């Protein structure tokens, strides 16, 4: 099988395994490395120390996996068709909003398993090769690699966009030493004069086109950050307890978004219409039960209560809300108590 034939087969096998698009690129990321270093120098990564700790492994694939000369980049759509409409959840202050990507099974597990199958199929049906798969699981500059592989362009909100499907998709990679022909880099940036994502951001985290200050981002604050959430952002968080999809919701390109047919990405445990009071009163065992196999599990019970306390502080005042908050007023965690007391003060 020629390298050209193999590249074609890889894309066919990828679709058979459930990916919607597969592209191939080289490993030159010099321009993106400069952009990353500038972002880090401005401390926009917040407490994500690992962004600096890995040095240039993120932008130099051959350092992460020696021998790598090509990257196979794959896209998998995740927007669930059966979830309660996003806007209706955001508009209901009694409900908990969870980012659409986290409503179903943990995408890290789903994507990684499929990518491994693809890499193994290449070995079995074509030729042995050195490889390693990634799904947001190591220092990989996945959006830049996907752009270079022809899967889309990076929008002003810093997400990857494709003109036919928008941005509701996951990305994963296979680093390989196979000398495969590469696809053309996606030409141009097609956001034009649109600033919808910048204008809608509740905490003004998109500080300039193509530049997000993680320290202001609700997704960072509710998922990555483990400390006391600054008061200046709490009201703006509304009922968002895990992630934020606002910049994707308003993006004009997402009118072309495709719903996923993947069963693993359908909502589980009623997470698409979850009562704030109910999930705030979960015990730690109940939290672990309801988030089993979910990406949500990684934030831990303490952050879950912290985030939900803020949302309850923003909820319509009621005896039920106040009673729920009072039940956590003496919680052993000072982090939880801090946010519960703030929430109660909003209803005073």
Give an overview of the whole structure.
The protein has 16 helices and eleven strands. With 348 residues, it is of the alpha+beta class. Helix 1 (3-16) packs antiparallel against helix 6 (107-125). The radius of gyration is 21 Å and the shape is globular. The model has no long low-confidence stretch (mean pLDDT 96).
Q: Can you tell me the overall shape? A: globular
Biggest sheet strand order reads 1-2-7-4
Order of helices and strands, N to C? HEHHHEHEHEHEEEHEEHHEHEHHHHH
Largest sheet: 4 strands, antiparallel
Instruction: Name the average pLDDT.
Output: 96
Alpha-carbon Rg, integer: 21 Å
Summarize the structure.
With 348 residues, the chain is α+β, with helices and mostly antiparallel strands.
What is the strand and helix layout of this fold?
Layout: H1 3-16, E1 21-25, H2 30-41, H3 50-53, H4 61-64, E2 70-77, H5 86-91, E3 95-98, H6 107-125, E4 131-134, H7 142-148, E5 153-154, E6 160-161, E7 169-176, H8 196-200, E8 206-208, E9 211-212, H9 218-224, H10 231-237, E10 240-242, H11 246-249, E11 274-275, H12 276-280, H13 284-290, H14 300-314, H15 319-327, H16 334-346
Parallel strand pairs: 3-10
Antiparallel strand pairs: 1-2, 2-7, 3-11, 4-7, 5-6, 8-9
Helix pairs in contact: 1-6, 14-16
């Amino acid at each position: 099988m020629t390298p050209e034939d193999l590249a074609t087969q890889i894309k066919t096998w990828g679709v058979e395994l459930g990916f919607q698009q597969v592209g191939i690129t080289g490993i030159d990321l010099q321009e993106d490395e400069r952009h990353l270093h500038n972002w880090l120098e401005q401390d926009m990564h917040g407490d994500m120390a690992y962004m600096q700790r890995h040095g240039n492994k993120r932008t130099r694939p051959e350092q992460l996996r020696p021998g790598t000369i090509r990257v196979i980049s794959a896209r998998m759509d995740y927007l669930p068709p059966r979830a309660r409409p996003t806007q209706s959840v955001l508009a209901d202050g009694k409900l908990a909003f969870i980012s659409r990507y986290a409503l179903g099974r943990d995408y890290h597990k789903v994507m990684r398993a499929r990518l491994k199958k693809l890499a193994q199929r290449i070995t079995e049906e074509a030729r042995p090769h050195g490889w390693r798969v990634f799904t947001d699981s190591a220092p990989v500059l996945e959006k830049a690699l996907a752009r270079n592989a022809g899967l889309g362009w990076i929008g002003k909100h810093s997400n990857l966009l494709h003109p036919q499907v928008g941005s509701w998709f996951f990305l994963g990679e296979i680093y390989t030493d196979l000398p495969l022909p590469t696809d053309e880099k996606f030409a141009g940036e097609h956001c034009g004069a649109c600033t919808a994502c910048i204008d809608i951001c509740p905490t003004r985290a998109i500080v300039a086109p193509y530049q997000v200050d993680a320290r202001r981002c609700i997704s960072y604050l509710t998922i990555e950050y483990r400390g006391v959430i600054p008061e200046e952002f709490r009201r703006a968080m509304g009922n968002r307890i895990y992630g934020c999809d606002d910049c994707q919701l308003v993006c004009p390109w997402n009118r072309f978004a495709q719903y996923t047919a993947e069963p693993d990405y359908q909502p589980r445990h009623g997470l698409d219409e979850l009562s704030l009071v109910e999930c705030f009163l979960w015990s730690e065992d109940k939290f672990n039960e309801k988030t089993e196999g979910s990406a949500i599990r990684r934030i831990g019970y303490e952050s879950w209560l912290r985030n939900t306390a803020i949302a309850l502080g923003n909820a319509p005042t009621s005896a039920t809300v106040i009673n729920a908050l009072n039940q956590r007023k003496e919680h052993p965690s000072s982090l939880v108590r801090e946010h519960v007391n703030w929430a109660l003060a909003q209803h005073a």
